[in-house]
């Protein structure tokens, strides 16, 4: 039952419901303006809470493992984009130009925080290092992602120049994040005590962004541009990309002599992409109607990575204490 809950978690279902509501009842006119304003406030609150949760002690505990973090960052911000660019002759005919741009956007996003740590813990990996890598990846992504978008997608037409996009990201994401972390001294204990219901604020913020983005996209004719066959092809492409990254991250970790626990951390921190960061960031980087199709690959990849990593974490958790081998990678 726990395994099934991880495969089909309520939040993933809620995201699908938000897309369906936006398809049937999109926000238009004054409603779109109101939802746009609420979305900006929700994004700021989301990153404020992220900052308030960040434990300096946990970060320092894993910060010294620089080789592990360097490999995770290389997989997140170098390996992913290189694979998507290398696979362009395969991906582009299958999904079309719009969804391929969404695949590029997916490839330059930072890693997840909560789920990467949760799966590492479940698999008995190096949790302090996972906390450090995931948190640092999110912070680096605030600057690296818009720069990589500018280089790989020529996305200046969405919201100004690349440097202007970085400025918007810093103002709307990094500033609330730093403010939340600065306020941790006063509100950290309260946030820790109320994690259970505060997660609904996090998820509600993302759902609001998804609804607003898809309302704009549906109004602009999203489902005429993206037929069902393209969605199926996109899911297959996401499966292929995740399989390649999982195999390469573990192979690199093994060849570089990392311990079993560190290999697990590298696999989960280096192969995942963050919807919590990617969806709000897309809202800032791209023009209204363009956001929906650009985050479709992220939404599909997010669900696939949860399903696959849940099974993989259970496999790792049942291992003996012998080092991982090529058979585990396969």
UniProtKB/TrEMBL annotation:
<keyword id="KW-0472">Membrane</keyword>
<feature type="transmembrane region" description="Helical">
    <location>
        <begin position="204"/>
        <end position="226"/>
    </location>
</feature>
<dbReference type="InterPro" id="IPR016833">
    <property type="entry name" value="Put_Na-Bile_cotransptr"/>
</dbReference>
<feature type="transmembrane region" description="Helical">
    <location>
        <begin position="103"/>
        <end position="123"/>
    </location>
</feature>
<keyword id="KW-0812">Transmembrane</keyword>
<feature type="transmembrane region" description="Helical">
    <location>
        <begin position="70"/>
        <end position="91"/>
    </location>
</feature>
<protein>
    <submittedName>
        <fullName>Bile acid:sodium symporter</fullName>
    </submittedName>
</protein>
<dbReference type="InterPro" id="IPR038770">
    <property type="entry name" value="Na+/solute_symporter_sf"/>
</dbReference>
<keyword id="KW-1133">Transmembrane helix</keyword>
<dbReference type="Pfam" id="PF13593">
    <property type="entry name" value="SBF_like"/>
</dbReference>
<dbReference type="GO" id="GO:0005886">
    <property type="term" value="C:plasma membrane"/>
</dbReference>
<feature type="transmembrane region" description="Helical">
    <location>
        <begin position="165"/>
        <end position="183"/>
    </location>
</feature>
<feature type="transmembrane region" description="Helical">
    <location>
        <begin position="232"/>
        <end position="258"/>
    </location>
</feature>
<feature type="transmembrane region" description="Helical">
    <location>
        <begin position="130"/>
        <end position="153"/>
    </location>
</feature>
<feature type="transmembrane region" description="Helical">
    <location>
        <begin position="7"/>
        <end position="25"/>
    </location>
</feature>
<feature type="transmembrane region" description="Helical">
    <location>
        <begin position="31"/>
        <end position="49"/>
    </location>
</feature>
<feature type="transmembrane region" description="Helical">
    <location>
        <begin position="279"/>
        <end position="301"/>
    </location>
</feature>
């Amino acid at each position: 039952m726990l395994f099934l809950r991880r495969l089909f978690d309520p939040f993933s279902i809620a995201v699908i419901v938000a897309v369906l509501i936006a398809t049937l009842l999109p926000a238009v006119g004054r409603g779109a303006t109101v939802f746009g304003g609420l979305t900006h406030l929700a994004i700021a609150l989301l990153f404020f809470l992220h900052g308030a949760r960040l434990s300096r002690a946990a970060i320092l505990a894993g910060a010294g493992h620089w080789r592990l973090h360097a490999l995770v960052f290389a997989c997140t911000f170098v390996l992913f984009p290189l694979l998507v660019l290398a696979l362009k002759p395969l991906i582009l005919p299958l999904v079309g130009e719009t969804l391929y741009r969404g695949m590029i956007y997916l490839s330059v996003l930072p890693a997840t925080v909560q789920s990467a740590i949760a799966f590492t813990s479940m698999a008995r990996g190096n949790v302090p290092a996972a906390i450090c890598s995931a948190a640092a990846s999110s912070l680096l992504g605030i600057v690296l992602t818009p720069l990589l978008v500018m280089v790989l997608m020529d996305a200046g037409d969405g919201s100004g120049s690349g440097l202007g996009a970085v400025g918007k990201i810093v103002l709307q994401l990094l500033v609330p994040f730093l403010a939340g972390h600065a306020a941790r001294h006063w509100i950290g204990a309260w946030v820790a005590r109320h994690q259970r219901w505060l997660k609904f604020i996090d998820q509600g913020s993302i759902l609001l962004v998804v609804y607003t983005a898809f309302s704009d996209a549906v109004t602009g004719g999203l489902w005429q541009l993206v037929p069902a066959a393209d969605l199926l092809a996109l899911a297959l492409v996401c499966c292929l990309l995740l399989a390649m990254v999982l195999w390469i991250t573990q192979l690199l970790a093994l060849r570089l002599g990392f311990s079993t626990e560190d290999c697990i951390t590298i696999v989960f921190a280096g192969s995942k992409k963050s919807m919590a960061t990617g969806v709000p960031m897309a809202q800032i980087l791209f023009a209204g109607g363009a956001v929906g199709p650009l985050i479709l690959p992220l939404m599909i990849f997010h669900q696939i990575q949860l399903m696959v990593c849940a099974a993989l974490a259970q496999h790792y958790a049942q291992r003996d204490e012998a080092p991982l081998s090529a058979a585990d990678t396969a």
